[in-house]
Amino acid sequence: MLPFSYALRNLFRDPARLAQTVGGSALVVLLLVAAVALNQGMDRVLATSGSSKNVILMGKGSEESIERSEVHLEAEAAAATSIRGLDSQLGVSAISGEIFYQAPLETESGNVEQALFRGVLESALLVHSTVRVLEGRFPQSGEVMVGHLAHRKLGVDAEQTAIGKILKFEDASFTIVGIFEAPSTVLESEIWFDRNDLAAITQRDTLSSITLRMDSAEFDDVEIFTFQRNDLELSAIREDSYYEKLSIFYKPIKMMTWVTAALVAAGAVFGGLNTLYAAFAARVTEMATLQSIGFTRGALFVSLIQESLLATLTGTLVAFVTAYFLLDGLTIPFSVGTFSLTLTPMVIGVGLVAGFLLGTLGTLPPAFRCLAPALPSALRSH
Amino acid sequence: MKNLIEIKDATKSFHKNKETITPLDKLSLDVGRGEFLSLMGPSGSGKTTLLNLIAGIDSPTSGEILINGNDIAKLSRSQLTRWRAQHVGYIFQLYHLVPILSAYENVELPLLLGKWTKAERKAKVMAALDLVKLSDRAQHRPSELSGGQEQRVAIARAIVHDPELLVADEPTGDLDRESADSILRLLGDLAEKHGKTIVMVTHDPKASAAAHRALQLEKGKLVGEGHLLSH
Ligand SMILES: Nc1ncnc2c1ncn2[C@@H]1O[C@H](COP(=O)(O)OP(=O)(O)OP(=O)(O)O)[C@@H](O)[C@H]1O
Ligand SMILES: [Mg+2]
C-alpha cells in the first residue's frame, strides 16, 4: 500500500487543479444542500401549519382556494351551537370565522408588496394554538398585528413592521399594535386585521372560512353538520389535509429547484471530471512505474481515490461552512407564507453522501483510464 | 543451478488488423548468476520486449521464461506483480522517479511492499543511497538532481530490496559520457561485488563493453554472440 501522505502530497502537486476540484465539489454539494433545504423547508412549513385538531369550513366548490371561498356570516354561530365537543376556553367555543385576502400593502418606507391578510376576531387565538403574541396586543379597529416574518414577505427590514409603524392598504392606514409568532407555520408571515375592518375595506359581507378546534368532537361530527345545514353550502376539510394539498400544488416549483440544481451541478461535475482526466492522464507512466516496482493496481487505485476524496470532502466542508453562514436560518417568502432553511441532519447527510460519491464514483472513470493501459506501453509513453 | 535466467523458445506476437507482428521469435537464452549481459540491436529489434519478459512486466505468447527455475510465463498478472516486488529491479532510460517524492522516499518505495519496520527501511535506504554515493542528497526532489544523479537514485531504488535480478533499458541513453561511465561502473560493481545478475539494453558500444557478454538482437532473433569480458 502507498502511504496516505502520498495521496495528500499528490493533491498539492497542482494547486490550480486542487482549487478547481475543491471549488467544484463545494459548488455541487452547496447546490444540493440548498435544494434539499429548500424542499424540506417548504414541506416542513406546510406540514406544521395545519393541526390535526382543526377543521376548516369553506364554501362548497371552492375548497382549492381559501381566497375565493365564501361562507355566510351566520354559519359561524350555527356551527357554534350545532357542533358538540369543540374546544373552548372560559365558555367561548374555539371557532373562528376569518376573512382571507391577498393584496399589495404599502409600508412607511414606501415599499409596495403583495401581502397576506387575515381578518380575525379574538377567538382566532383559540383555534390557532401556535400563535403567541410576542409584543403588544391583539388589534382593534384601525389596528393590525403582524407575524414576526411578515417583513420577509413584504421584502422590507424588520423595523418597518415594528410596533407603532403604519401600514397602508387601499386608502386606509393601520397602526401596528402587536407582533406574534407561530413557529414553523405560514401564519407568521401574515398581517392580522380586525375582521370588520377587512370586511369593510374589501366590501365583503361573507367570511372566507371558519376554522374549528375540536376537543371531543370528530371530523365526522363537523361533516355531518355541513350535511344537515346544506343550505349554508359548506364543505369541511381537515386543516392538515388542506396544507397537504397545498404542498402538492408546490410540486412543480420543487421540481424546478431540483432541475436547476442538477443542471448546474452536472456542469461542475463534468468540469471536475475533465480536470481529473487530465491530471491522471499525466500520471500514466508514473502509475506504470509503481506497478513495475510491485504495487498492485488495487493499491494505486486506493491511493487515487484517497486523493480525490480528500479534495471532494474538503469541498464538502467548504460547502457546509458556506451553507452555515449563508443558508442556515435564512427565511424565504413564497406565495402562502415564509419558510426557513435549516441544516438538518438529513441535509448534512445528503451533502456528505454527495461529497463521498463525487470522490469515489467521480474518480472511477479517470482512475480506470489511468490504470488501464498495458504496462509495456504505459512505460514507453513519456 | 548455474543459470538464473533460462528462456526457451519465447515468442511474443501482436495481432493488428489481421497482421501479425512478432517482435520476439522463438528466442532462447541463458544468463548465468552474477552475469552482466548487454543486449544490442537496431531500433525495433525487440530488445525492450525481451527485457519486459525477463522482468515479468509482460508475458510471452508462447515459450518458457525460467527465473531461478520458476516459469514466470505461467504467472497471472497479479502473481507477476507480487513476483516483481521481490525478485527484480527495473532501471529505465528516463529514470521514472516519482516527482513529488524525495530521493529517500523514491528509494523506499519497494520496501513499502515488504514487512520491514521503519528503522529497517531507513537502514536499507541509506545503504542503497550510500552505494550510489548520494546519501547527501536523500532529501532532494528529482527536479533538484542532475540526470546522472536521478539515474543513480533509480538504481538505488532498483536494488534496495536486494533482488537477484536487475534489468536496465538504455540506462545511459540520456546521459553525458561522464555520467554514463559512472553508471556503468556502478552496474559493473553490482554484478562483480554484489552478485547481481544484470540484463542491460543499450545502443552504446562503449556501454556494451562494460558487460561480461554482449548479444545482438535482430528482428526478434539473437544473431551472433559478442565479446566475453573477464570470464
Ligand atoms: N503493444 C504492441 N503492439 C504492437 N506492436 C508492438 C507492441 N509493442 C512492441 N511492438 C513492436 O515490437 C517491435 C519491437 O519493439 P521493442 O520496443 O522491443 O523494440 P526495441 O528493440 O526496444 O527498440 P528501441 O531500440 O527503439 O527501443 C517493434 O516493431 C514494435 O513496434
Ligand atoms: Mg526499447
Describe this structure in words.
- Chain B: Keywords: ATP-binding, Nucleotide-binding, Transport.
- Chain B: Pfam families: ABC_tran (PF00005).
- Chain B: Belongs to the ABC transporter superfamily. Macrolide exporter (TC 3.A.1.122) family.
- The complex is a heterodimer of chains A (about 375) and B (about 230).
- Chain A is α+β, with helices and mostly antiparallel strands.
- Chain A has 2 domains: about 5-50 and about 250-380, no CATH class; about 60-230, no CATH class.
- Chain A contains 14 helices and 16 strands.
- Chain A has helices at about 5-10, 15-50, 75-80, 125, 150-155, 195-200, 220-230, 240-250, 250-280, 285-295, 295-325, 345-360, 365-370, 375-380, and strands at about 55-60, 70, 90, 90-95, 95-105, 110-120, 130-135, 145, 165-170, 170-180, 190-195, 205, 210-215, 235-240, 330-335, 335-340.
- In chain A, the strands form 4 sheets. In chain A, strands 1, 5, 6, 7, 8, 9, 10, 11, 13 and 14 form a 10-stranded mixed β-sheet that branches.
- In chain A, helix 1 crosses helix 11 (about 295-325).
- The model of chain A has no long low-confidence stretch (mean pLDDT about 90).
- Chain B is of the alpha/beta class and about 230 residues long.
- Chain B has one domain: 3-Layer(aba) Sandwich (Rossmann fold), CATH 3.40.50.
- Chain B has helices at about 45-55, 75-85, 105-110, 120-130, 145-160, 175-190, 205-210, and strands at about 5-15, 20-30, 35-40, 60-65, 70, 90, 165-170, 195-200, 215-220, 220-230.
- In chain B, the strands form 2 sheets. In chain B, strands 6-7-8-3-9-10 form a 6-stranded mixed β-sheet, sandwiched between helices. Chain B has a 4-stranded antiparallel β-sheet with strand order 2-1-4-5, with helices on one face.
- In chain B, helix 4 (about 120-130) packs across helix 5 (about 145-160).
- The longest helix of chain B is centred in the last third of the chain and has 16 residues, at about 175-190.
- Chains A and B meet through helix 1, helix 10 and helix 14 of A and helix 1 and helix 2 of B.
- The complex binds adenosine-5'-triphosphate (ATP) and magnesium ion.
- Magnesium ion (MG) binds near residues 47, 48 and 169 of chain B.
